[in-house]
Design brief:
By secondary structure, the protein is α+β, with helices and mostly antiparallel strands. The protein has 19 helices and 20 strands.
């Protein structure tokens, strides 16, 4: 989270926004650091990072904050860096000079400290040998499951670990044959067609030679078991393994109309590959075949783009899941959106994911098996394709949500544009739809510009202002400035603003290229 400019973001010593949340914490600190300061540092470093502001008190009953200031700025700052470099306080230094900013508001001085998320394989950061995580209601001690997750994340080659006492009999050979047929179809390597099962599995790395033993036997690896295994065999290694797809006929329906789930009598031996082959056609059929037109009056790319985005999000959930987790991989298909949830936090930032800057795979063997048959074609391509589908077809921005308390990552891919979504929520008339559509296209407008664009088709200026005011009252549109300089923009969440920044950078890169 960026430093706060109190001069522009609050209007008095006592304020209610910006409020504390997952990435913002206020603390009083007159002459020394509060006792809870390093707990928050630990929790931010172990989750998504955040901003701590010293010199602000909280009134929990009134849900307000008051700027009280820090009296001994230099003393508190020196204490901060002394503790930051003291391993008996915090397990590793996480704060640099650039992360600390001293600001002032109405004569009160504040200290703002940015805490960056620690790299996934260097967590947890501990305060006095205790790890904390950030939740909706503050800082909490990490649970045993969360500590186990941190420990496993420090390891490399998670799914290439070899298994004792497992062999080909633990695999669903129908799934292996289906995969082999795809290999033959997609490659020119003739050996794939004539190899027996054991040779194929050896070549694919599903079975690997155990070089720690003098016998040097081939053993099944964890990723191969996940990808091709029988359900009972998979659950011997991953007791909470579950894959679940549900389709609903409305956005608010609670009863599903179609389901593919581990343990269901219809799917007795569901593994990663068989789940993918069953669910992908269902997702693709869940994309309406709309005929949209772009500026060149040709058929738009909506149908193909959304199908590809759904495929990328499905593969992403299966490749990057933390299979030792407590929750299922869950795929939700509703009329307005797809939702893909998998246990495990993202190993890269949301911006890196959407821009395709980096790919850090949790399950290397699973990823390799997808790539071998061209299902996952290029590293780090999934996020950009999901974002492109939304941008090119003027859909709602994709959402990436990480639940650090439950260690779950959720990606929502919308099938609808802004006008359709808002219309479904509050029912817009034609003038209001025009305003939303105009703002979606231009990003910002002044009243004169949009009214001129209407050609007076929606009545007088005062009538049209009432339509605009209605959208402001509904917290859909935000007005910035006063009088003739007023500008109108969408009300944006922190999540949406992050996506906006990615779009802006990608557009700049496109222009430079």
């Amino acid at each position: 989270m960026d430093f706060i400019n109190f001069e522009t973001e609050v209007n008095s010593i006592t304020f209610s926004s910006p409020a504390e949340g997952l990435e913002l914490e206020y603390k009083t600190s007159s002459f020394r650091l509060p006792n809870s300061f390093w707990e928050t540092v630990s929790s931010f470093a172990n989750t998504a990072g955040g901003l701590i502001v010293l010199g602000v008190s909280e009134n929990k009953e009134a849900h307000t904050y008051t700027i009280v200031g820090v009296d001994d700025i230099e003393g508190v700052r020196q204490s901060l860096f002394n503790d930051n470099n003291n391993p008996s306080c915090i397990s590793k230094p996480v704060i640099t000079d650039q992360d600390v900013r001293i600001t002032a508001y109405r004569g009160k001085r504040l200290i703002q400290i940015q805490i960056h998320p620690e790299q996934y394989n260097l967590r947890p950061v501990k305060y006095r040998d205790i790890a904390y995580v950030r939740t909706d209601d503050g800082d909490r001690k990490a649970t045993e499951d969360q500590l186990q997750y941190f420990l496993i994340e420090q390891q490399r080659n998670i799914d290439t670990e070899l298994l004792n006492n497992f062999d080909i009999s633990d695999l669903n050979l129908k799934t292996v044959k289906q995969y082999q047929d795809e290999l033959v179809e997609r490659t020119t390597f003739e050996n794939y067609q004539t190899q027996d099962v054991q040779e194929l599995l050896n070549d694919l790395g599903v079975c690997r030679r155990d070089r720690t033993s003098s016998e040097r036997k081939y053993k099944l690896c964890k990723g191969g078991l996940l990808f091709f295994g029988k359900l009972n065999s998979i659950m011997d290694v991953y007791p909470r393994f579950q894959l679940d797809y549900r389709k609903y006929n409305s956005d608010k329906a609670e009863d599903w109309i179609d389901r593919v789930s581990s343990g269901d009598l219809n799917f007795p031996d569901l593994n990663i590959f068989s789940f993918y082959k069953l669910v992908l056609p269902k997702l693709q059929s869940g994309v309406p075949d709309k005929y949209l037109q772009d500026n060149n009056l040709t058929r738009g790319s909506y149908f193909a783009d959304l199908q590809l985005a759904a495929k990328e999000a499905l593969v992403n959930a299966l490749m990057h899941a933390y299979y030792n987790g407590q929750t299922a991989i869950k795929i939700i298909d509703r009329p307005s959106y797809f939702e893909f949830s998998n246990p495990g936090q993202m190993r890269v930032s949301e911006e890196s994911f959407l821009r395709g800057q980096d790919s850090v795979t949790r399950n290397d063997e699973v990823a390799m098996l997808f790539r071998k048959v061209g299902i996952s074609e290029k590293a780090a391509s999934g996020g950009p394709r999901i974002l492109l589908a939304a941008t090119r077809n003027h859909l709602l921005d994709p959402e990436v949500i990480v639940d650090y308390e439950r260690n779950v990552t959720t990606i929502r891919v919308w099938k609808v544009d802004v006008v359709s979504y808002i219309d479904s929520e509050i029912k817009l008339d034609e003038a209001e739809k025009f305003i939303i559509d105009y703002l979606n296209e231009h990003g910002v407008f002044k009243f004169k510009d949009i009214f001129d664009a209407t050609g007076s088709q929606f009545g007088s200026e005062s009538t049209f202002r009432k339509k605009l005011q209605y959208l402001i009252d509904e917290d859909i549109i935000l007005v910035e400035g006063k009088g003739r300089s007023s500008r109108y923009v969408f009300v944006r969440t922190e999540e949406q603003m992050r996506v906006d920044r990615v779009k802006m950078v990608k557009e700049l890169e496109k222009k430079l290229l």
